[in-house]
Amino acid sequence: MNELDYLRQMRSLNRPVSPHRDLWTDIEARLGETVPTATVRHRRARPWLMAAAIAGVAVLGGGIGLHLVSPTPNDGLAATKAWKPADPRLTGAAVQLDATRLELSQAMRENPDSPALQRLMLRTERQRDRLRNFDKQAG
Q1: How far is CA 44 from CA 34, 35, 51, 65, 101, in A?
Q2: CA dist 67 → 104, 110, 113, 129 (Å)
Q3: Which domain holds residue 105?
Q4: Tens of pLDDT along 7-58?
C-alpha cells in the first residue's frame, strides 16, 4: 500500500455510520427510572468526609500562613553589601548586577533545586567578578 491508498481509506472513514440497533428505545426506557435508594444512602453515609476536608484545608492554610510569617533563613547572597566601584563608568553595571543577584536569590528561595536559577546565579557572580577586575584595572 502506498500513501494514496491510505488517503482513500481515510476518506472512506469520514462517512457517517448508523448504529446496529436503535438506541432511543433504551434511552427512553431509562428516563422513567428512579434513582436507587442505596446510592442516596451511600452519599449521605460520609458526613465525616466533609469535616475531614474542611480540617485539611484549615491545616494547609495555617501552614501556609506560618510559612509566610516566619522569617526565612538568609542564604548569605542577599546579605552582602552592595559593591560600589571607584570608576563611575562601572556604577550602572554594578547596580544592575546587584539587583539581578537579589532577584535571583529570591527566586532561589522559592525553588532552591532549579538548575536554571543556579546557572543564572553562577553567571551573574562571574560577571560581577569580571566587573571588579575591570574596576581594579581602571583604578
Answers
A1: 18, 14, 13, 33, 56
A2: 20, 12, 19, 34
A3: 88-138
A4: 888 888 888 878 888 888 888 888 877 766 655 555 565 778 888 888 889 9
Q: SS3 of 130, please? A: helix
Determine which helix (DSSP H) or strand (DSSP E) holds 77, and give its type and residue range. Answer: none
Please tell me whether residue 33 adopts helix, strand or coil conformation.
Answer: coil
Q: Report the number of distinct structural domains present in the chain.
A: 1
| Model pTM score | 0.40
Distances 42 to 36, 45, 136 between C-alpha atoms, Å: 10, 5, 78
Is residue 121 a part of any domain in this protein?
yes
**Residue 106 and residue 114: Cα distance in Å, rounded?**
12
8 Å CB contact between 63 and 86? no
C-alpha 103 chain-centroid distance:
18
Q: Where are the beta strands (DSSP E) in the chain?
A: none
